[in-house]
Amino acid sequence: MAYVLSIDDLTVTLGDAERRFTLRAGKWSIAAGEVIGLTGPSGTGKTLLLELLGMLRAPDAGRYRAEPLAGETGAPQAFDSFWKAPNAIALCAQARARFFGFVPQAGGLLPFLTVAENVEISQRIAKRPDPDWASALLGELGLSQIAHLRPGALSIGQRQRVAIARALAHRPFCVIADEPTAALDPENAQAAMGLLIEAAQAGGTATLLSSHDFPTLSHFAMRRMALQITSAPHDPNVVSTLVPLEAQKTASAPQEVSG
Predict the structure, then answer these.
(1) Which of 108, 158, 170, 182 has the most CB atoms in a 10 Å sphere around its CB?
(2) Which H or E element spans position 193?
(3) How many folded domains does the chain comprise?
(4) Best-predicted range by mean pLDDT among 54-63, 176-185, 198-207, 208-217?
């Protein structure tokens, strides 16, 4: 699915009358095949941002749309409107299954399934069976020889590669990776990041990478965006804003409100 994902002042606020945290996602877009690295100090709301972008949390305001690229036949998707519909839970679940793939920090594999079954499960959920593509991903990520094993028999690096294959198996428009190399040593982190980016681009998948791993990110060509605290220091109403990295100002010391 060749789309462009557009974010226009998507905003969410958490907290109460005494202390609030507001995340402002700015105005930007990402097209099929593009890679964006999302960074920012702890406490600036990276996980909250990924929850918004992955349709796991409702925004308070703003526009969030997917438009098919020129020449594509897909229908436009007004993701921000899904949360307001009577069947919001079902609509958002369908959007997650169809448009997004997820690579969590710890892999999130199902321990009772083999490597091959863990990869294929995203195709089953999205109702897009494609055994040839699943097999190709296993080969590209160096998993073919261990496809019969269960996660408990794998190394941390192998489990993360399985998570990458699973996220790509149903050919989503966009993969959202939350600290995908956090548990890996530097050498394996760079290799896993490279495999994720290469496999995603080969399938025409947009990739959003949230990471503290600046040295690893710097090895790859990608746009960079950063969350920074834009409210006054010590203000109990904290505001965190996503900006292009080249436009990032010196941030105030982050307050540990949301991670």
Answers:
(1) 170
(2) helix 186-202
(3) 1
(4) 54-63
